[in-house]
Amino acid sequence: MKVGIIGLPNVGKSSLFNLLTEANAHVAKFPFTTIDRNLGFVSIPDKRLLKIVEITKPPKVKFASIEFIDIAGLIKGAARGDGLGNKFLSHIRDVDLIIHLLRCFTDPDIPHTDSDVVPKRDYEIVRTELFLADLAIVERRIQKIKKKIECKEEFVKLEKIRDSLSQAKIPEHTVLDLSLLSTKKEIVVLNIDEDGNFVNGVEGYKLSAKLEEDVREFTDEEREDLRKDAGLDSGGLPGLVELCLAELSIIIFYTIKGEEVRAWPIKKGTKMLDAAGMIHSDMKDGFIKAEVLSYDDFISTQGFTQAQQSGKTKIEGKDCIVKDGDIVLIKFRS
Average pLDDT of 12-32? Predict the structure, then answer.
């Protein structure tokens, strides 16, 4: 799963990306610091995995992760190619979820693309560019198929999509292979000054990149208290990651094999066969069955072997739907 961070230049995208991924993307006080996209992985905070590790004491532990992409700032006219807009817009097509970061702080040393900071206006500028980019794609498709009788049904659908986009509305119906930008899931994040005094007039997840940078060495409790004092969402960066997981409908399952305990992120509703394929393609190709234990039963029995002996594990087939917290042992032909 991929999450893209978008917004105008100088809103704090690279700073947020660095805080989430512990990467070292270049940050500067001028527009277009980021030209090529930055890629990084964020480990998913997981108290259940830590509890499993506490019981099993494995030499190796691997947290689940999701990929974050720092996408260069979009400006008015991006859909026409201004500011390398076409290149930046193409990066958004690759992601499953958008974090739309809005600047909600004033700083004379960090220029804004306009003379003042107005988050609602900034949000509409970026959204408009997404709609215009989608509209151009739909228009090209319409011109390509309008004279083909066999494409009449698609033509009618495309006209409805065009009408919605022209009014800056998300289309109710889409054509799957269009990969529209405006229809992607979105989380609005407000990058507020560390004092929490900026009046933004926009709803979203309230976070301060500057505050998060300053409190990295503090305890979890201290960080939460400081966020609350500043009028921010108390979850901070971990809370934002959890919000991304919820928007993407991601759940976690676990494997305990050999020397490693590992967490795996999958879409809710994934079948056991596909989960096996995530672990290794050989497991999917030679799948026989899965032995499954719920997290709660693992904790109550204090181990997978003990759960087997207590009759707590279940044998499941390839069409079984994986549940959040399942601990899975795949049996397969090698």
Answer: 70
